[in-house]
Amino acid sequence: MELKPVIYLYPEQKQNTMVGLDYNGTLTVSYPEYGNGWQVIAHPDGTIINTKDGKEYSYLFWEGMSADASYDLSAGFIVPGWQTAEFLQDKLSKLGLTPKEYNEFIVYWLPRMKDNNFNLIHFATKEEYDDRAVLSITPKPDSILRVFMVFQSLEDDRMTVEPQELKSFERKGFAVVEWGGRGLDRIFFH
Known about the structure:
17% helix
């Protein structure tokens, strides 16, 4: 199953930054090229200059394949496909994404979700995502927000799930924000 995260860096001042990824799976695509890690110059406005090619990037992107991931979909939200954009704007904003960040998230994921009758949406827990895709960042960030959405297309809304409790994020100092997601072919319950 494919994961498609992007990483934003917001230091308090321009700084050299190393971003490493220890992913329990196979890295299939990265932009800019990951190599042995991303070595970049990060700016407070989120601009990233890749030191390997000298080019500017809005974020770091990676995609990976993992066969062993499972998610507890007994908690989440069932959302009509046509309401997905509004739902994501609301929830991603509450989680702590800025309008720029949640708009980029929605532009990427909405085409895959809007025409479904319903979407079961679950935001992965630390154990379901963070511990399987570990970031190592130098210098160490003061705050990190990692939002990873898992969704499954549903034909109807007869299924019931426990509403998922979402915690908001406070950006402090050098902040790192990552968002990503994946669609599931089948539903797996723990």
